[in-house]
Amino acid sequence: MRRYRSSEPAADRAARATIHDVARLAEVSTATVSRVLSGGKPVSPEVADRVRVAAQDVGYRPNPAAQTLLRGSSRTVGVVVPDLGNPYFAEILKGVAAEAAATDHHTLVAGTEEDPEQEYRSAIELARWVDGLLLCAPRMSTPRLREVAEAARRLVLINRVLRHSAVGSVVVDYHLGVRALCEHLASLGHKRIAYLQGPTAAWSDQQRQRGFRSPEASGLTIFRVPCGSTLVDGRDAVDEALTYKPTAMICFNDHVAVGVLSRLRELGLSVPGDISVAGIDNAPMSAHTDPGLTTYAVSTVELGRQAWERFTPRVTTATTHVQGELVIRASTARPPSRR
């Protein structure tokens, strides 16, 4: 085979090179080039090598849309998250992207700003183009979620369960986390706990609240305060929470807890001197706040890994439960009256 060299920049050559150029240089048909580059029907190793060398020489890059049509697969998974600014979801995305890259797949990500309608539209649109869809803590209604399940080739959920034969789920047992936090705070002598609730559409908030009905919380008075999932939500909820005169606050997540710490500092209240604060998820910044944040640690890497496995044919659609562990740091201590 003749080798081809050009003084043109590679980007310019790639923009003009066609499958016909590769076929001519490799001395094969365009159909053979297509089979080699798309991973279709096998050809001899010698022919495959000639085609790949020719493609490299002319700077040819197959059209992704055309390859998708040929393979019947885009080798892409769509990921929809409610808040791209939340470190928890960012860490999950890192885990999923790493698993995808290891199997020569790509991820296409959409953030939806905690808007169930935007989430639904994004999921339906992505389902048209990708091989599978991963929804992280979806906020949309169950009927809408069923529509997405019917539209997607494969659907996997993180922190949401849907009774559907083609849907797999990976969920954190958050009720166990709340039970562990309640047990910890009760052991320190706390009796009055303010819980800063998550988004009203969050399935995982319902699971957290199950923990307050456990034996570990039986001796505690729980005050539920509407909040949300962001740092700003946490900051804005503090003043209402303080009207209940709690000795400790449990926050929907660590992001909220950081906002709580900020507002308490503004009010001149010491943590844990005047009030204890705990979060959930063990986000990366939790060990670096002042004071360090007591939290229920969840492995986002494991969540991402388990979710990715749900896209492999050998795995069933059953729900996988992931448990965390209590991490005690300096933000919780005995209440002032018990010192």
Highlighted features:
elongated; Rossmann fold; 3 domains; six-stranded mixed β-sheet; alpha/beta; 339 residues; 17% strand; single chain; six-stranded parallel β-sheet; 434 Repressor (Amino-terminal Domain); 13 helices
Structure characterization notes:
- The chain is α/β, with parallel strands linked by helices.
- The protein has three domains: 10-70, 434 Repressor (Amino-terminal Domain) (Orthogonal Bundle), CATH 1.10.260.40; 75-172, Response regulator (Rossmann fold, 3-Layer(aba) Sandwich), CATH 3.40.50.2300; 174-299 and 325-338, Response regulator (Rossmann fold, 3-Layer(aba) Sandwich), CATH 3.40.50.
- Helix content is 42%, strand content 17%.
- α6 (87-102) links the parallel β1 and β2.
- The model is unreliable at 4-14 (pLDDT under 50).
